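I would like you to sit down with the pair of lines that follows and say whether tokens and residues agree.
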Amino acid sequence: MDIFFQNGKLARVFNSDSELKQKYGERAKFLRSRIYEMRDVGNLEELRSLPHARCHELKGDREGTLAVDAGHPYRLIFEPANDPIPRKIDGGLDWRNVTAIKLLGVENYHD
């Protein structure tokens, strides 16, 4: 799957092992591994089937975004980057046809 970043600063952090470690400490290794897993799948449906990824759509004021586990309690937050965003007939997200995402950040949204 193609991964884009919300902005240049986030791209710089995720494309540099030293910056990733500086920002996220020991979590950096896990984040790097998760990004590699996300790049290796072909679409969101495949990502959802990865063990322990727990890929899911967010609700409420976060509708339109998704999350995967980034080591409890943190999540990688992203949104589909296909244009247009693939939809099923009922309007729901067509997970099989989402082949690109935009990474928005790493958050503990349970606080």
Summary: Residues 27-40 form the longest helix (14 residues). The longest strand covers residues 100-107. The chain has a mean pLDDT of 94.
